[in-house]
Write a structure and sequence with these properties.
By secondary structure, this protein is an all-alpha fold. Helix content is 89%, strand content 0%.
């Protein structure tokens, strides 16, 4: 596992949190919720890619 994926997920979390706070201060709660959901989906896509790589490695290990 590469350490850059952790930094990417942390950066997504920080940017999502900051933009969510700014939007809530501007009374745009609906858009802040959408930004939070988009950040969550983006982080899940990164994690899903890592899970696919893990399954490919296990599949190659057992030659299935």
């Amino acid at each position: 596992m590469d350490i850059t994926i952790i930094f990417k997920i942390a950066a997504i979390g920080i940017l999502t949190a900051v933009s969510g706070m700014l939007l809530k201060k501007a009374n745009k709660e609906e858009i802040a919720t959408l930004v939070s959901i988009a950040g969550l989906i983006l982080a899940l896509v990164l994690v899903l890619d890592m899970i696919v790589q893990l399954f490919d490695a296990v599949k190659g290990l057992f030659e299935l």
